[in-house]
Specification:
Length: 454
């Protein structure tokens, strides 16, 4: 197994999931601060008020990242930390935090990749309609400019939004995530349309204001289908299924990616959603469809499908007892290969795996260490598929392991542990898991040490 010399070996996290400091130094409230205050919404009524306390411990955390040897760290900016009301007043102290974090990363030769929005929407703007308000795209564009003005002299990698499928779908349709709404489908699609406009305007803003040449992408959820057999018919069935819209929900690739990359909503979605389609104003699709430098995709699992009658596809027969992570997501390494390949073939953009990882039942063992062989095996298998993707000519430029440290897993609170650094949430103490030492070897050998595990 080999990886290109400049392959980006990274790890990721997001502001609300690790920072804490929920009310520190003038930070405004986000919709996640508010959802966590509602009893019963989050596992064990956990909140992100303190989380990993990364807001105060960031420098130590960067030292750990450097010890692991990370080449890049994907972080997100908390919009209400930077602009407490979401627009207007800038909170310099909040902005300074990211300034110091970026400096600390660069000092340690870790490239910051910044996600502008990873779900912590300002509560004040939510009260003005949130993503349902068409002005939201302007609010987001203005906020983007503030961040770009401050950091773009040192930061060149930008991701606009993380997983619109989730913050729109889980946040506005099923209500599991903040802001916890269960809206009718027309409103869900309206919010989606505005978030797409916000993406487009943010890309325009970054290109206009960045002081170093920016590389801009997305981080969409990868809804991956893998073929049952390696035959032409089965591969075509999986591809068709991966890019089809069959349900009135957000859990698909094309409703978001087609407008962003191709400049149009997909025909099957337009048909299935017909009576719910929001007004699309003149120029909207042009705004949404901005040139991008990479397609960032978060891939955790996938579903194997087979070719069915009339050219469609159906779920493949599956094991009664498949390998599952603690999230009960099936371990499906080939999802990384097929997902990356199908996305590249459809959208023509270099692929970056902006998230891949697993939740595991980790604790500190009696020898004081955290042994997580499942995670090592998981990443070995997925990276093997990543290498296959590259070998077959798909430009896959980077891999961000989710997550650099255990963190607040949204509605699942601290129950789920995704990190390669263990965090004791009572004391704040960090412990590198076995997987962190393993990842360190992977990075230092540019993936070559993976050959020993095969
Ligand atoms: C997502 C988010 C992350 C999650 C991770 C594990 O994909 O939902 O980007 O914030 O923590 O994916 O679920």
């Amino acid at each position: 197994m080999s990886f290109p010399e400049n392959f980006v070996w990274g790890a990721a996290a997001s502001s609300y999931q690790i920072e804490g400091g929920a009310c520190d130094d003038g930070k405004g409230l986000s919709i996640w601060d508010m959802l966590c205050r509602q009893p019963g919404k989050i596992w064990s009524d956990n909140t992100g008020d303190i989380a990993c306390d990364h807001y105060h411990k960031y420098d130590d955390d960067v030292q750990l990242m450097a010890q692991i040897g990370l080449k890049a760290y994907r972080l997100s900016i908390s919009w209400p930390r930077v602009m407490p009301g979401g627009r207007g007043e800038i909170n310099e102290k909040g902005l300074d935090f990211y300034d110091r974090l970026v400096d600390s990363l660069l000092k340690n030769n870790i490239e910051p990749w910044i996600t502008l929005f990873h779900w912590d929407f300002p509560y004040t703007l939510y009260c003005r309609g949130g993503w349902l308000n068409r002005d939201s795209s302007e609010w987001f564009a203005n906020y983007t400019k503030v961040v770009v003005d401050k950091l773009s002299d040192r930061v060149s990698h930008w991701i606009t939004q993380n997983e619109p499928q989730c913050f729109i779908g889980l946040g506005h349709q099923t209500g599991e995530h903040a802001p916890g709404l269960k809206l009718g489908f027309a409103d869900v699609l309206l919010a989606a349309h505005h978030s797409l406009l916000a993406h487009g305007k943010a890309v325009q803003g970054i290109r206009t204001y960045a002081r170093t040449k920016p590389l801009i992408g997305t981080a969409l959820a990868g809804v991956v289908k893998t073929p049952f057999k390696n035959s032409y018919a089965e591969i075509e069935a999986a591809r068709q299924c991966m890019f089809a819209i069959t349900m009135r929900d957000c859990w698909n690739n094309t409703w978001f990616a087609d407008p962003i990359v191709l400049g149009r909503y997909p025909a099957d979605g337009l048909k299935l959603f017909e009576e719910f389609i929001p007004e699309i104003k003149n120029g909207d699709m042009e705004t949404i469809c901005q040139p991008l430098d990479f397609y960032g995709v978060n891939i955790y699992t996938g579903q194997t499908v087979l070719a069915a009658e009339n050219g469609s596809c159906a779920p493949a027969p599956h094991s009664e007892s498949p390998p599952l992570t603690a999230m009960e997501w099936e371990v499906k390494p080939e999802a990384l290969y097929w997902g990356g390949r199908f996305l590249y073939e459809r959208y023509g953009l270099p692929v970056v795996v902006t998230e891949n990882g697993m939740a595991n039942c980790d604790w500190i063992h009696s020898d004081g260490k955290v042994h997580d062989p499942q995670r090592i095996d998981f990443h070995t298998r997925y990276l093997c598929e990543c290498s296959r993707l590259i070998d077959e000519g798909v430009p896959c430029n980077g891999y961000f392991l989710w997550s650099v440290m255990d963190n607040f897993e949204w509605a699942q609170g601290y129950k789920q542990k995704f990190g390669i650094i263990y965090v004791d949430f009572d004391t704040g103490k960090r412990t590198l898991k076995d997987s962190a030492f393993w990842y360190s070897d992977v990075i230092r050998s540019n993936g070559r040490c993976l050959n020993n595990s095969l």
